[in-house]
Amino acid sequence: MDMKIDLNFDAGEHDAVNTEAAVMPYITSVNVACGLHAGSPKVMHAVIRLAKQYNVCVGAHPSWPDRENFGRREMWLPLDEVEALVSYQVGALAAIARMEAMELRHVKPHGALYNQAAENAELAEAIVRAVKRFSQDLIVVGLAGSYLVEAARAIGLPAAGEAFPDRAYRPDGTLMPRNQPGAVLEDPVQVAANAVRLAREGIRRGETLLQPDTLCLHGDTHCAAENARQVRAALEAAGMLLEPL
Predict the structure, then answer these.
(1) What is the DSSP letter of 184?
(2) For 1, which of 78, 81, 116, 164 is 20 to 30 Å away at the CA?
(3) What range defines the domain where residue 37 resides?
(4) What is the pLDDT of residues 71-82, one digit of tens each?
(5) Whole-number Å distance between alpha carbons of 176 and 178
(6) CB neighbours of 20 closer than 8 A, spacing ≥ 6?
(7) What is the predicted pLDDT for the residue at 172?
(8) Which of 75, 68, 176 is CA-nearest to residue 117?
């Protein structure tokens, strides 16, 4: 029996959508920036139109309000403000999706918000409360084995654990920080091989083996389109069935 895996892509983070157009034929889900770390209403519309054209499922990619640092600077805000920020971004993208005759499938935080929610239970709970208030059907995407995934499931939301073929992992199963050499994999062949390994073997964290539901490719690399092409081909060659969440 074929193993099923979702292949998602962080999108809408630049003025042009050339990369998204090149990547969209190979992915099954797309995470669209909601304007606070990157993106704009015009870009949101454009990415969602592309997703509709290629039958790709759309999700919101909310962030800390931090365009200067691309949402990668850690912030700490009151939890009610976190809920409001997530609600605002998900609602904005959902409205634009509705205008394009599409519906949101999932929510995946971006950057520092994602990483902090992976390790901080209270922050994770604030995020999933906001998602649940918007819709009980949205899938919360978070780092496999993280507090974010656990918090979503604890309040009855569907959740998906994620792994990153274009990132290096530390021995404890967490992502290597981007400021360390080798943290971002640049060779599409290596990225594709890593994708197959992660899908087949999962991520080992201590004595626990975490099997991802979805694999993520980043859009802010020069080889994003080639990564997507080679990852898709490698997964299919390995007998994986690519399906959206």
Answers:
(1) B
(2) 164
(3) 3-242
(4) 999 999 999 999
(5) 6
(6) 9, 11, 12, 30, 46, 47, 50, 219
(7) 77
(8) 75
Candidates 86, 23, 22; CA nearest to 59 is 86
The CATH number given to whatever domain includes residue 162 is: 3.20.20.370
Q: Is the dihedral of CA 91, 225, 4, 102 positive or negative?
A: positive
Strand-strand pairing, 57-61 and 139-143: unpaired
Contact 124, 147 (CB under 8 A): yes
Q: Which pLDDT value is given to residue 233? A: 97
Residue 57 in 3-state DSSP?
strand
CB 157 within 8 A of CB 130: no
AA letter at 65: P
23 to 11, 121, 187, 231: CA distances (angstroms):
10, 34, 16, 11
Buried b (16+ CB within 10 A) or exposed e, 132-142: bebeeebbbbb
Kindly give the parts of the chain with pLDDT less than 50: none
pLDDT of res. 2: 67
In terms of DSSP bridges, do strands 3-11 and 214-217 run parallel, antiparallel, or are they unpaired?
Answer: parallel
Give the separation between CA 204 and CA 76, rounded to whole angstroms. 29
Helix (H) or strand (E) holding 106: strand 104-107
pTM of the model: 0.94
| Predicted pLDDT at 42 | 97
165: left (phi over 0), alpha (psi -120 to 50) or beta: alpha
Number of domains in the chain: 1
